[in-house]
Every structure is written in C-alpha cells, then in structure tokens.
Amino acid sequence: MIKRSMAVLMLLSLLLYLQAGFCYALNQGDINLSHLDSLKREITTAEGKKIIVVVFASPADPQNPGAGKDQPAAKSGGIACVDDAARAAVVYMKYFEQFGDLNALKKARECLDFILYMQDADGLFYNFIKEDGSRNTSDPGSVKSMSWWTVRALYSLGYGYRVFKSIDKDYASRLEQALLLTQARIKDYLSAPETGYGNYIEIHGKKVPAWLLNKGGDVTSIAVLGLCEYYKAKANDDTADLIKKLCRGIDEFQGGDFETYPFYAHLSSYTAMRSWHAYGSSQIQALCEAGIIFNQSQWIDSAEKEANGLLVHLASSYGPVYGFEPHPVIYPQTSYSDEALASNLIWLYKATGKENYAMMSGLMASWLYGNNIFKEPMYMASTGASYDGLDQAGINKNSGAESTVEALLALLNINRTPAEKYLSFTEISALRFQILEAEHGQTVFKVFEIKEYPADQDSGFKMKLVELNRENSFWIKFNMTDAEQYNFYLVFLKKPGLGKAIAANMRIDGDIIIQVAMGGSPDVPYLTMEKVMGPYFLAKCLHTLGIRFSGLNFSQPAVVDCVVLQPLVERRLFKNRDGKYLLLMKSMTSIERNNPVSLASFPPGKVAMTVYNSSGSIAKQDVSDLQSNGSNFQVKLPPYGYATLEW
Hints:
By secondary structure, this protein is an alpha+beta fold. The chain is built from 13 helices and 35 strands.
C-alpha cells in the first residue's frame, strides 16, 4: 500500500504533468496503455496472487487488431516472463513521470512485485512463470543467469527505486535490497578468473574485453542503464565503480570504421564476433547516460562514432533492420529493433544537444506510424497495440507484450523532444545498397553446391552459402535504377591459411576482374564482410557480375554468401502528412564530392539545407529558393558526412 496520502500524490502528479507540458508533446492519448493493460492477468503463486503480463497475443477479431487474446503458453517457457514485465514496469513508470497518471504507477508496482517474486536468493532471476504459478527453473530461456532477464530486472529495480524513493520509502527499500543482490553478482562476475575486469580474450585476431556481461555489449548496456538509475537516486562508490568498468568494456568493444563493417558499431556479443543486431542494442544509450552522469566525454564520443557510422547509414537506407550476420539482414523488422535505434539516437541528442540526432530518432520511430515498406502503421494509438513485426511477405498482426512495450517505450523516450516533428514522415523514394545473393547465381559450367553455415562458430543464425570449387563459376544479372558510383562488399567465409591460397575472382560487366583473397583467419573459419573494390561507376541499366573459383588450394572451396553494392552517396526522400519534404543524404566515402540534386518536380518554396561532417557537427547551413521551373542543387558532402534538405 502506498503510504503517502492521495492528496499529496495528486499534487505530485499535477506538478509532474505541468512540468512536462512545455516544449514539444505527443498527446497523452497518442501513448495509449490500453492494450498493454489488456495483457495483464492474475495468477496464484506460492506467495499468493501476482499480476503478470502475458507473452503472446493474437487478435480476437482479425479486422480489429489490438483486441488481444492469449495464445497457448506452449509457445514459450511459460505464460509470462521477467523480460516483458521489467520493460512494462519501466513503461508504466515513465508514463507516470510524464503524465502524472497514478493508475500507471499502481500497475508499475504490480509488475515490480512479479519481478521480486522471480528473483532467487542469490540475486539472479528466473525468466518464465508457468500456468500453475511456479517458476520455470530448467528451460534454457528461463534459467537464472547473467542474461537478458536479469539485467532487465535490474533496470526496472533501479528505475523503481528512483521513482518510489520519494513516494513510498519502505517499498523503495525492498526494491533497493533486491537490486543490491544483483549488483553483488555483477561485482562477483567482474572478479571471477575468466570474466574479471581487465582480462581480455582474443577472437579472430581481435582483443575483446572478457568482462562484458553474458559475453555481450548489448546485455551489458541494459545493466548500465539500471545501475545509472539507482546511482542517480543514491550516489555511491560501489555502483559508480561498476558502471565505469562496464562502460569501459562497451567502449572498447567497437569495430570497423566509416567504410569498414561494422561501421563503428558497438558489437552485440563476442560469441558471434562478426554479427550485430539492432534489437536490445542499447550501447549508445548506456554510454550517453553514464557519460552525462560522470562527465566522460570519451564515452559520448564513442557513441557518436557509432551513430554517424552505422545509425545514420541505416536511417538513410532501410531504417530499423534486423541486423548484420555479417550479411545485411533487412527483415524481420520489429518495434524491438526500432525502439533501440530511436532511443539510442535520442539519448545522443540529450548528451550533445545536436538536433540532427533527434531528427534521426524521429525518422526511426516513424516506422511505427507507417514509414515502412507497406506504408501501414505498426502502432495503433486508438488501441495502444503494436504489431509483432513485418517482413517482405507481410505484417504479423499479432500484438504481444514485447512489441507493444517496445513501441510504447520508443514513444515515451522521444516524447517532448524535437524527434516528434519527424514521426509523420514517410519514405517516397530511396537510393540504397543492394544485396546480390550468391545462391541466385546462374551456373556457367558445373553446378555449384549451396550449403548452410553458421554465421559464426557459436552463432545460431544459419546462412545459405555457395561453395565454389575448381570448376565452379556463376553470374548474376542486376538492374540499376540510378547511375552512381558504388563500393563492392563481399560476404564470404574467411578460412585459416595463406590469404590467396583460397580465393575468388569477380568480374563486372565482362570487363574489370579482381581477385579476392579468402584466407587469413588466425583461428577458425568465420563469415566476414569486406570492401573488395570501388568506387566503380554503374550506369542506369542492366549489369552482370561473375564470380569463379581462384587460388592455389584446390582442395578447399571458396565459400561466398553475397555481394553488397553500396552507393557512395545514399539518399532517402520523405514526405509528411502536411506536405513537407525531407531529403536525407549520407556519404559512405572518404572522397569529398559535389552531389547534384534535382527538385524540378516539386512546388516552389524555400529549401533549408544543413550539411554535417562525420562527427555530426554542422559544416554548412543555407536557405535557397526552389524555383517554379525546377532547381538543381549542388550538395557538397564532407568525407562520410551527411546532409538534409527540408522544404
């Protein structure tokens, strides 16, 4: 029972609401908790009745998505989980803070009560609860460990302690004690022989911090966010020490550069060193949050590199992709990935004050409102439901806990920021990278074999790859709709041994031939994506790409996944519901160049152009007239910079 009087709470709520009412604002009705509320059920446990958030929900009426009903619990390790309840608790508490809604605070407490029930005496958490009210202690997706559900529980406890500290000190103390148990386990993790702070392991020739929780920068970032929430409410040396150590690990687990995959991304997990996934990757958010608290500009700079390397690249091409394995995996697209990208960018805006990051955040979140391949909303403000995702085959119109919570979290994080201005923009055209799948190639002489390989030694993600032996070759036809210069990236299996002992030759339009060395792995074979040639001009017409076996080791096949054609400057044109246009251009090259942009088909008006350098700082601003007879603009992009034209 919350002990302070209702009058005091109502006054607090009013003050919160009035404080939040300035600047930009999504309407309270735009962030609708109704569907999330409908996913809550009461279940009887050994400790009495608890409120849970059911995992799955399909529409009771397919014509009315958002009217949810439970799917069978057999589809998971149980009917509800800490993963979803912890995120739901954060959503309810953010909603309370922004809108002063006492009912949301009550529901946050219900979620937190469930989370407390799922904690074991050692501070770790089981994830799933069964229909009979017992905890699932054996399923791989539920066993207590330093995994997603434990760090998400930690995040909700830290957030809960900060919120309830001024409302109900006794309840806040319960949350704190639970958090400190988990914090102690993290301290143990960073002191263990194999995962101790300052230890490194070497994978594929790269030194990797061994103390990242669950071997991942993604899981570690969620823990940092939880510890930061607790530290903001109760500064102390132990928590500060852990945050700094974990952030050092995230900071060092960054790869590539502006032209080399993974384009400055903070990688997801070193069990799959060449993979990066968008979902749950909150490394930028964590580095910014901790960077603000501890005045660590190095962490914020590291976050900016990823934003200007990878996230702007995604915003100007496909939006919230699934990830890279290292083959670009465009689909499925989900609110889980969308939230991570939008929240990362808005935290970078908060850390730097640069509105271009807020703009990118809004463009990412606009996916929820129809900025996707089907031009359909994935989030319905009328019901508060978010569809489970989409791929090229269509939209999955189930609306489970994860998709709903993540959509609400994205909107709450960008609420009352400049990002809101971009929620109604929808793509109308684009020039972005193309993927040429090797398995779609046409055989020249001898038929090649297609086999499944793991994306990395410990990755569960399977890829279809082509094995090219001595007599194998193939060619692919592809059509270019825009004349542009391109870099060519090849995704292939890098094997141990001398570089050119295993190789393939690539031939473009029967003319230029290049040899790609496929050896050189210092340990085990692994998939990689490497730039193999460019820039190379491709005219607006039909082209051919041929690949054949090369090299000296005839007993080892060359294993090819795909070729990625990356335009040196990618472009994406948007229009919003008010008839405003936005053109986003991103340079993927070190060459400074003028880029002609024709706006001849658009109505006259003022065009505001802003050019950013590779650090995300403004390099040039200009306002020009768009003449009624059409105008050609020259946009000079700095190396790896980007630009926006708005009119």
